[in-house]
């Protein structure tokens, strides 16, 4: 009995948390409106972070561990006194810090679990917490107000309240632990499922908002075309560049949200033609005096004749219709079903004096409620599909046509061929110079010395011996130089053992302890082997020089026609994927084989560089040591 | 002393044959490809083999593979491998069975006939002869954790040990008494965690540990 009564009191305290979470929710909602609605995102993190004081109190009372990520370090000062965030430099640390703070506070999944708790706890926590007390107080109250007939049921209710109190307190604590505790490895698949649906709906809503932008652009494009027809061609490049900015964003979103990768279809902008002998610039059939005008007309020409421009315009006009229909069928159905049908139907069931209007089944609120729920569920189920279809729709007009793709590919191949041939020419020049300055010169010296020995051997044997020693020295040096040269052209281990063993030799020679794993069943084509070998060599040198790593690993893997090499180290990270001549060299080297280099290197490490080169594998060599050994025994 | 010689360049093969004969070796076979080499090693069981790494027919590491295959059949068969380049990877493979009788030298080393013949004799006697270049590369890469525990003097001793020098020769080179070198080697074995056993074997294992960088 005392246990039950104590549980009732404990329940009251827990109900208090429900009230607090309801108050928090109200405060949040008040700030969310300007935060999201007016784009004042910097209002958002503060209440989320403040809220942690409350949630941490709740956690402490239940012994739940605190799940938050640690606060970000202040942005480091660059050598020139500025502060970096992403790809911009700032004079004061204020903005970079704001961005870091935003990322940290809103990027933490625990923040959103807190928010979920705040949304649900006013109801769940309230019922579980205040339930027993309400029964205990409400039972006798019924008996008092409704007359003697209610005495027995009222007392029964009060007793039931005390009896279920411990169980409800346990249930409340279990719920709170689930909601506020750290996400376990298999944490609530239902929660994940709901979260995904919710995310899909949010994305659809965001796309709907962007569709409004597209509609505005469509109006602008049409106006611009009319103006063009009237002779005001100046507006075209401006509107085209706005349109391209918006479509670039939509391509990006189609890939990130809908999983439909959409390539950029535009032709590369041509370079300004060189000045003619008479000082003019020729663009098409026209001559211009200043480079500015020439460039402008060239730009106009380039935009006008690129079919992708007109596909963009067609898309801006069509997207509000086609995209809008998809959005209405999913997010629209959920929103309308819930706000327009379910809520008024529920309100009607309580029979208020001034019933809200029901758009469907006005006479039968129960049926309307069911229909509304069906709408919400159908919309939510359709949402992921709608998002994917939306991506496909975007790709339909915004992706390059087969012809444009070919043109892009030709441009890309031309560039990589130029890279490859110029790199090859530079390499040959280096080899020629090394041979000329090194081994060739030394061999001439050896020949001269031997000639002199021939003369002196009878008359002055001591000098002759000295000359022979010199000649031997020169030969040794020439050999050493040739050895270095050969290593740079085609490393002997690579020739003798193939890529994996050669990489193993590199790993052995690296000062950072490096492990090598491989599942290659054959050998890649020789040029690819060499390019990848030198790439890995460069990367391992970088690891040794810059990473400060205690261990590194190289994984060589071939699947579905792509050779993948992953070089990983546990160093300090922060490698700039764009900069660094080493990485650029690697990229150039692999580009000749359509290979790619991907660098993931957050500040603080670890660094992972992935090389991918499409290529086949030849069947493995049959005359390996083991093969021969067994055949001879 | 009976020698099998494998070298595909005619001039070099003749030169080596002359050099070895002049120093009292009996060259029982001089071959120019991998399969012939393996057959000669297994049929003739020479006292030592002098082998070029790269041999026909594949022009890859045929010579090395034949030598390793022969040593699997005849453990401890002394082999001195010659190459235009030295690799730690290959040195490790050659020494991996821990039975000694391994030499691994750059071809340039034949210029100095005395030292080269000395190396062939050491290998024939079951010792090791690693090219100074292999060793230089190890330190160019920076000392491995276990080697970092060695004192500079001990490291010098280990380097010379890897080249295959005896304690007396090491003492001569470093101006130390033979017993002082003995103390250093004992300390090296201790630091590399090699239990006391046959000294020659331990020398090979120490060099192997050294090559592994562990």
How does this structure look, described?
The complex is a heterodimer of chains A (633) and B (214). By secondary structure, chain A is of the alpha+beta class. Chain A contains 17 helices and nine strands. Mean pLDDT of chain A is 82; it is low at 622-633. A six-stranded parallel beta sheet of chain B has the order 2-1-3-4-5-6, with helices on both faces. Chain B has eleven helices and six strands. The model of chain B has no long low-confidence stretch (mean pLDDT 85). Chain B has helices at residues 10-22, 34-44, 62-73, 88-95, 113-124, 132-140, 145-148, 152-163, 167-174, 178-191, 199-212, and strands spanning 2-6, 26-31, 48-52, 79-83, 102-106, 128-130. The termini of chain B are far apart. Chain A binds chain B through residues 472, 475-476, 479-480, 483, 486-487, 492-493, 495-497, 501, 504-505, 508-511, 513, 621, 623-625, 628-629, 632-633, and chain B through 34-35, 38, 42, 53-54, 58-61, 65-66, 68-69, 72-73, 83-85, 87-89, 92, 106-108, 111, 137, 141-142, 144, 213.
Multimerization status? heterodimer
User: Count the strands of chain A?
Assistant: 9
Give me the number of helical elements of chain A: 17
Order of helices and strands of chain A: HHEEHHHHHEEHHHHHHHEHEEHEEH
Number of helices of chain B: 11
Largest sheet of chain B: 6 strands, parallel
> Strand order across the biggest sheet of chain B?
2-1-3-4-5-6
Distance between the termini of chain A: 88 Å
Q: What class, by secondary structure content of chain A?
A: alpha+beta
Shape of chain A: extended
Key words describing this protein structure:
heterodimer; A: alpha+beta; two-stranded antiparallel ribbon; 7% strand; disordered C terminus; B: 214 residues; alpha/beta; six-stranded parallel sheet; 11 helices; 55% helix
């Amino acid at each position: 009995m005392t246990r039950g009564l104590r549980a009732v009191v404990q329940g009251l305290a827990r109900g208090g948390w429900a009230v607090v979470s309801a108050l928090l929710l109200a405060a949040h909602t008040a700030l969310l409106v300007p935060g999201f609605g007016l784009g004042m995102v910097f209002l958002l993190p503060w209440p989320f972070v403040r809220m942690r004081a409350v949630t941490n109190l709740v956690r402490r009372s239940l012994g739940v561990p605190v799940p938050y990520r640690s606060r970000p370090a202040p942005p480091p000062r660059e050598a020139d006194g500025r502060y970096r965030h992403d790809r911009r430099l700032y004079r004061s640390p204020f903005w970079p810090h704001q961005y870091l703070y935003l990322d940290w506070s809103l990027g933490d999944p625990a923040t959103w679990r807190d928010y979920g708790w705040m949304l649900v706890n006013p109801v769940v926590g309230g019922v579980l917490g205040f339930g027993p007390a309400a029964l205990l107080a409400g039972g006798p109250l019924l008996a008092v107000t409704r007359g003697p007939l209610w005495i027995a049921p009222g007392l029964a209710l009060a007793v039931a309240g005390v009896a279920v109190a411990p169980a409800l307190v346990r249930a409340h604590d279990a719920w709170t632990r689930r909601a506020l505790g750290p996400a376990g490895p298999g944490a609530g698949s239902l929660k994940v499922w709901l979260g995904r649906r919710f995310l899909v709906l949010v994305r659809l809503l965001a796309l709907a908002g962007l569709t409004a932008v597209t509609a505005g652009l469509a109006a602008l494009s049409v106006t611009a075309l009319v103006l063009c027809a009237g002779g005001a061609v100046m507006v075209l490049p401006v509107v085209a560049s706005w349109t391209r900015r918006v479509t670039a964003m939509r391509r990006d979103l189609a890939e990130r949200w809908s999983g439909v990768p959409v390539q950029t279809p535009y032709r590369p902008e041509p370079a300004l033609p060189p000045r003619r002998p008479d000082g003019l610039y020729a663009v098409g059939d026209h001559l211009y005096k200043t480079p500015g005008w020439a460039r402008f007309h060239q730009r106009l020409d380039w935009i006008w004749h690129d079919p992708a421009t007109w596909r963009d315009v067609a898309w801006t006009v069509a997207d509000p219709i086609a995209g809008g229909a998809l959005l209405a069928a999913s997010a629209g159905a959920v929103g309308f079903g819930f706000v327009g049908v379910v809520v008024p139907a529920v309100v009607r069931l309580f029979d208020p004096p001034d019933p809200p209007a029901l758009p469907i089944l006005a006479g039968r609120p129960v049926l309307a409620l069911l229909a509304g729920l069906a709408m919400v569920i159908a919309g939510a189920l359709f949402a992921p599909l709608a998002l994917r279809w939306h991506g496909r729709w975007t790709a339909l007009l915004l992706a390059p046509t087969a012809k444009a793709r070919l043109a892009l590919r030709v441009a890309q191949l031309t560039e990589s061929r130029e890279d490859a041939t110029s790199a090859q020419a530079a390499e040959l020049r280096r080899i020629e110079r090394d041979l000329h300055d090194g081994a060739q010169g030394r061999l001439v010296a050896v020949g001269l010395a031997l000639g002199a020995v021939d003369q002196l051997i009878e008359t002055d044997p001591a000098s002759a011996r000295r000359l022979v020693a010199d000649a031997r020295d020169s030969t040794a040096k020439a050999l050493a130089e040739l050895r270095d040269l050969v290593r740079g052209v085609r490393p002997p281990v690579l020739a003798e053992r193939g890529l994996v063993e050669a990489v193993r030799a590199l790993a052995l020679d690296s000062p950072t302890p490096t492990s090598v794993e491989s599942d290659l069943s054959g050998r890649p084509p020789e040029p690819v082997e060499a390019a990848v070998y030198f790439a890995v060599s460069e990367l391992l040198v970088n690891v040794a020089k810059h990473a400060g790593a205690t261990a590194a690993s190289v994984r060589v893997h071939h699947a579905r026609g792509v050779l993948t090499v992953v070089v990983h180290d546990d160093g300090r990270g922060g490698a700039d994927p764009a900069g660094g001549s080493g990485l650029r060299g690697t990229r150039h080297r692999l580009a000749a084989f359509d290979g790619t280099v991907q660098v993931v290197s957050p500040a603080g490490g670890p660094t992972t560089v992935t090389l991918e080169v499409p290529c086949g594998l030849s069947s493995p060599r049959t005359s390996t040591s083991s093969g021969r050994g067994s055949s001879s025994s | 002393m009976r020698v099998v010689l494998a070298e595909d360049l005619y001039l070099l093969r003749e030169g080596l044959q002359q050099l070895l004969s002049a120093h009292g070796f009996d060259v029982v076979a001089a071959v120019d490809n991998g399969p012939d080499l393996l057959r000669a090693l297994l049929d003739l069981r020479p006292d030592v083999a002098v082998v070029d790494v790269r041999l026909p027919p594949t022009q890859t590491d045929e010579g090395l593979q034949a030598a390793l295959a022969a040593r699997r059949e005849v453990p401890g068969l002394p082999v001195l491998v010659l190459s235009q380049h030295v690799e730690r990877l290959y040195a490790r493979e050659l020494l991996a069975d821990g039975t000694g009788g391994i030499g691994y030298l750059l071809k340039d080393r034949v210029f100095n006939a005395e030292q080269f013949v000395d190396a062939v004799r050491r290998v024939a006697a079951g010792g090791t002869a690693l090219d100074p270049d292999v060793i230089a590369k190890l330190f160019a890469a920076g000392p491995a954790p276990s080697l970092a525990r060695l004192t500079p003097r001990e490291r010098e001793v280990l380097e010379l040990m890897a080249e295959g020098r005896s304690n007396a020769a090491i003492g001569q080179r470093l101006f130390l008494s033979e017993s002082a070198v003995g103390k250093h080697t004992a300390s090296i074995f201790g630091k590399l965690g090699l239990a006391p056993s046959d000294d020659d074997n331990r020398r090979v294992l120490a060099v192997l540990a050294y090559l592994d960088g562990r």
